[in-house]
Amino acid sequence: MLGFLFVCLVLGQLVMPVIGTVYANCSEPSIPLTSCGQISANGCCAKGCIRNAVGRCVLEQCTGSWNGWLRRPVTMSCYFHWFLLIFAAVVIALMTVIVILNLIFEVRVCLRKRRLARYVRFSPRSSPSSSVV
C-alpha cells in the first residue's frame, strides 16, 4: 500500500509538476547563473548560493552556526560538509580512546614487571640449607 502511494506521488509529479516551478539544467554552460542577492528566474544560482522559498539566490550559510544545516533549503554539499566533520570527530574520538586504552595497558604491564622484580621468590634449591645433605 505504501509502495502504491509512493508510485502515485512520483508519477503525479512527473505527469503534472507543481505549477510555478521552472526546471532548468543548471550545469549547461549556456544557462545564465544568478548571483547572490538577485531573484532567479530559472532557478539557477551561482556556486555558493542557493534559491530560497521566495526565489532569491542567497548565500548558503550551513557552517555559520551549529544548527545552520537544519535550516531549509540546503544543498548536498552542505550535508556532505557536515557529514565529513561528524565522521572526522568520530574517528578522532575512537583513536583517542584506543591510545588511552593502550597507554593504560602499557602502564599496567610496567607496574606488574616492577612488582615481580621487587619480590623475587626463592626456590628451596637455591637456599643455603639445601646444599647440606
UniProtKB/TrEMBL annotation:
Domain of life: Eukaryota
Bilayer-crossing regions: 79-105
Signal sequence, start to end: 1-20
Record key words, sorted: Membrane, Signal, Transmembrane, Transmembrane helix
Keyword Membrane (UniProt): yes
Name of the featured protein: Uncharacterized protein
